[in-house]
Specification:
The chain is an alpha/beta fold. It is about 45% helix and about 10% strand.
């Protein structure tokens, strides 16, 4: 189980004699335990079956000197090939939900919706079905930092048109997985990937603080609002995952 980078919340049993003290360390009965991952951190298979290159693929290959231990996500935990084993482990530890991200370039290799990668659709469909068979709810993040490199070549999140491309990508996700997903998130920590990616030394490594990080933030906020409105108007009453009503993870 230690091959996975799970963010795991676990309950702890204390040997206490006082019921009052025991209750103070207990979780409520309706508390839900889950685990979480990000696609680039666990999937591997970085260039398998039609997947496109992401900014983190490019960054870790070209600038390994900026990565701890000079490592990359080419293989990672190999969850692309071992997702059924991963789900069994989640079931074994009693997880009720699984938050994971979908790799934009695995679905749309060049970031554009005119070319949908059938293998990417297959992979996430099988993962979601496996979760459902094991009574594990899915919390799906649309974007956890792995922008298709083809879109970064257009300026990435500093280019306002990327918001429109993100809407197209979200539409593919809703159409393909809407009846399997329990809840959706648009972005994971946009403050971090804008600040560190466009203003610092993480992928794509723009290091343009005070300019590109602000442009990134503006585009991402627009993209979130556009997808939320599209979901509310077109999908809310016919697909699952209406937790998209909540805002993105903006921490």
């Amino acid at each position: 189980m230690n091959r996975l980078s799970f963010i795991l919340i676990s309950s702890i049993t204390f040997g206490v004699s006082s019921n009052l003290v025991a209750c103070s360390v207990c979780f409520p009965e309706n508390f839900i335990f889950g685990v979480a991952t990000a696609a680039y951190q666990i999937e591997g298979a970085w260039n398998v079956s039609g997947k496109g290159e992401s900014i983190w693929d490019r960054f870790t290959h070209q600038r390994p000197d900026l990565i701890f231990d000079h490592k990359n996500g080419d293989v990672a935990a190999d969850s692309y090939h071992r997702f059924k084993e991963d789900v069994r482990l989640m079931k074994r530890i009693g997880a009720s939900f699984y938050r994971f991200s979908i790799s934009w370039p695995r679905i749309l290799p060049d970031g554009l919706s005119n070319e949908v990668n059938a293998d990417g659709i297959r992979y996430y469909t099988e993962l979601l079905e496996e979760l459902r068979r094991n009574d594990i709810k899915s919390l799906v993040t649309m974007y956890h930092w792995d922008l298709p490199q083809a879109l970064q070549d257009l300026g990435g999140w500093t280019n306002p048109i990327i918001a429109d491309y993100f809407v197209d990508y979200a539409r593919v996700l809703f159409d393909s997985f809407g009846d399997l997903v329990t809840a959706w998130l648009t972005f994971n920590e946009p403050y971090s990937f804008c600040r560190d990616g466009y203003g610092g030394l993480e992928a794509p490594g723009a290091a343009a603080s005070g300019l590109e990080d602000y442009m990134c933030g503006h585009t991402v906020l627009r993209a979130h609002g556009m997808v939320y409105r599209m979901y509310k108007q077109e999908y809310r009453h016919r697909v699952g995952g209406n937790a998209l009503d909540a805002q993105a993870d903006l921490s």
